[in-house]
TrEMBL record, chain A:
CDD domains: Rieske_RO_ferredoxin. PANTHER family: FERREDOXIN-RELATED, RIESKE DOMAIN-CONTAINING PROTEIN. Belongs to the bacterial ring-hydroxylating dioxygenase ferredoxin component family. Its cofactor is [2Fe-2S] cluster. This is Rieske 2Fe-2S domain-containing protein. It comes from the Bacteria. It comes from Aminobacter anthyllidis.
Automatic annotation (TrEMBL), chain B:
Keywords: FAD, Flavoprotein, Oxidoreductase. InterPro entries: FAD-oxidoreductase/Apoptosis, FAD/NAD-bd_sf, FAD/NAD-binding_dom, FAD/NAD-linked_Rdtase_dimer_sf, Reductase_C. PANTHER family: APOPTOSIS-INDUCING FACTOR 1, RIESKE DOMAIN-CONTAINING PROTEIN-RELATED. Its cofactor is FAD. The keyword Ribonucleoprotein does not apply. Residues 316-404 form the Reductase C-terminal domain. Pfam families: Pyr_redox_2, Reductase_C. One of its GO terms (cellular component) is cytoplasm. This is FAD-dependent oxidoreductase. The keyword Oxidoreductase applies.
């Protein structure tokens, strides 16, 4: 298993929101759910390589800012046209107010 | 189930029939030889891609097969026999239907002048895009007739390839239809800064061509000579088939809130139909937009299966030019008052409100996707007929999401 990478402080992400996290030449999206849990996915929409971090989080859905493709950010499942390819997800843990991601 | 038109709308409808659990035959009839593809890139990425572009398929052949969608490409419908519920195809065969969806889209409005020749072109299909692309090169001169979205996006693409560009718009400003002046000004300035020559308020008197160049004479007497003229003066709904079948027309094929035509077994959706928009007291509109084509396709499919669901969407539209992206939710001409919200990096949003404070539209422009999230939230507020606090709309520190909870 790969290492846990410290990504940000838990308070950097508002509830039901998303931020961008870049690491080692790759880009990711980190989410905080309305239930105050944290999740991570690849940062770019599978439709047209748009940063999901500028999209809107609603419940357990992230919606791409460009063409409204939707994913469940907890599972990565594509949830509506125009997206049909799932989003990769990554394990996340919170420790002492810091968010860690296992990027693999 | 038979769907005529394999664009964004018809293709979406075909998949939506399966998503709704329909198990019978689905036939998608498309006039083009390509797999169903996305049109928005045609004026943008397909023009400037360093390598010869390929279509951006909505669905590959495997996914069509998996969903048992029978695509008849390079085939058009020539007539509808409503009494026998059958469609005559260009290959001479007949296709019976239980329910029919007409999603024939729109075609470019033609410039009603003679002398255009082969150097005056239109953009609608992938093949059109390839033909235009073949002409664009460093130092060539392109005249773009029409300062609407297609023309402006093509102007931006042509500039990126190093072409000299002149835009000719008969109206007093670009983007007269549907875009507030404050936003059109930003777009105009961006083009001017990139070296595009924009002529507004001047119509076209005549066009002549000598086979290798086009000479355009404007009403003012100004002359523009170009290697290529691209005409982007709007689109007209493709209604020939519907009209000959005797379906009611009204700025396109007239449908009700469930996208049903005057024949209860025939639905119509996308650019070719006009429909009552519930959020504006059933104002009848016809939209030419990618997302509404999708939403229409999905809704028509459900209603073909008997859902009896009314259209409830807010129109939404975007355009990309240079590094700028513009997004509009709702129809700004519904608004009587405007509230401006300034975001970072020069991005801003205009909220369009009725006199009683109801939010009816929002339009924004900025670099990248700077306005996307707020426009999306505005769209949700519009859908709810919200009367948001004007101070909160104007204050970027107030999250629009907080207004949704109100």
């Amino acid at each position: 298993m790969s290492d846990w990478i410290e990504a940000c402080a838990a308070d950097d992400i508002d509830e039901e929101d998303v931020i961008r996290f870049d690491h080692a030449g790759r880009t990711f999206a980190l989410y905080r759910s309305p239930e105050d849990e944290f999740f991570a996915t690849d940062g770019l929409c599978t439709h047209e390589q748009i940063h999901l971090s500028q999209g809107l989080v609603m419940g357990d859905i992230i919606e791409c800012p460009k063409h409204n493709g939707r994913f469940n950010y907890k599972t990565g499942a594509a949830r509506g046209a125009p997206v049909c390819v799932n989003l990769r997800t990554y394990p996340v843990k919170v420790d002492a107010g810091k968010v860690f991601v296992q990027l693999g | 189930m038979v769907i005529i038109g394999a664009g964004e709308c018809g293709t979406r409808a075909a998949f939506a029939l399966r998503e709704a659990g329909y198990d019978g035959a689905v036939t998608l009839v498309g006039a083009e030889a390509h797999l169903p593809y996305e049109r928005p890139p045609l004026s943008k990425d397909a023009m400037v891609a360093p390598e010869a572009p390929s279509i951006k398929a909505i669905s590959d052949a495997a996914r069509l097969t998996e969903h048992r969608i029978d695509l008849l490409g390079a085939t058009s419908a020539t007539s509808i026999d409503r009494a026998n519920r059958s469609v005559r195809l260009s290959n001479g065969s007949d296709l019976d239907y239980d329910k029919l969806l007409v999603a024939t889209g729109a075609t470019p409005r033609r410039l009603p002048l003679s002398g255009l020749g082969q150097r005056c072109v239109y953009l609608r299909t992938f093949d059109d895009a390839l033909a235009i692309r073949a002409h664009l090169r460093q130092g060539c001169h392109v005249a773009i007739i029409g300062g609407g979205f297609i023309g402006l996006e093509l102007a931006a693409s042509a500039r990126r390839l190093g072409a000299d560009v002149t835009i000719i718009e008969a109206q007093p400003r670009i983007l007269m239809r549907g875009v507030p002046e404050e936003i059109a000004t930003i777009v105009h300035e961006a083009h001017a800064a990139e070296g595009v020559d924009i002529v507004c308020g001047d119509g076209i008197a005549s066009i002549s061509n000598d086979g290798t160049s086009v000479r355009i004479t404007l009403a003012s007497g100004l002359q523009v000579t170009a290697d290529l003229a691209i005409i982007g003066i709007g689109a007209v709904p493709a209604t020939t088939l519907a009209e000959s079948a005797g379906l009611t027309l009204n700025n396109g094929i007239a449908v009700d809130a469930q996208l049903r035509t005057s024949d209860p077994d025939i639905f119509s959706a996308g650019d070719c139909c006009s429909f009552p928009l519930a959020i504006y007291d059933d104002r009848r509109v016809r939209l030419e937009a990618w997302r509404s084509a999708q939403e229409h396709g999905a809704l028509a499919a459900r209603n073909m299966l008997g859902a009896e669901e009314a259209h409830a969407c807010v129109p939404w539209f975007w355009s990309d030019q240079y590094g700028l992206s513009l997004q509009i939710a709702g129809l700004p001409d519904e608004g009587e008052d405007t509230v401006r919200r300034d975001l970072d990096d020069g991005a801003f949003i205009l909220f369009h409100l009725k006199e009683d404070g109801r939010l009816v539209a929002a339009s924004g422009i900025g670099p990248g996707n700077a306005v996307a999230r707020d426009i999306r939230l505005a769209e949700m507020l519009i859908a709810r007929s919200a009367h948001p606090d004007i101070g909160a709309l104007a204050a970027p520190s107030v999250k629009l999401k907080s207004l949704l909870a109100a």
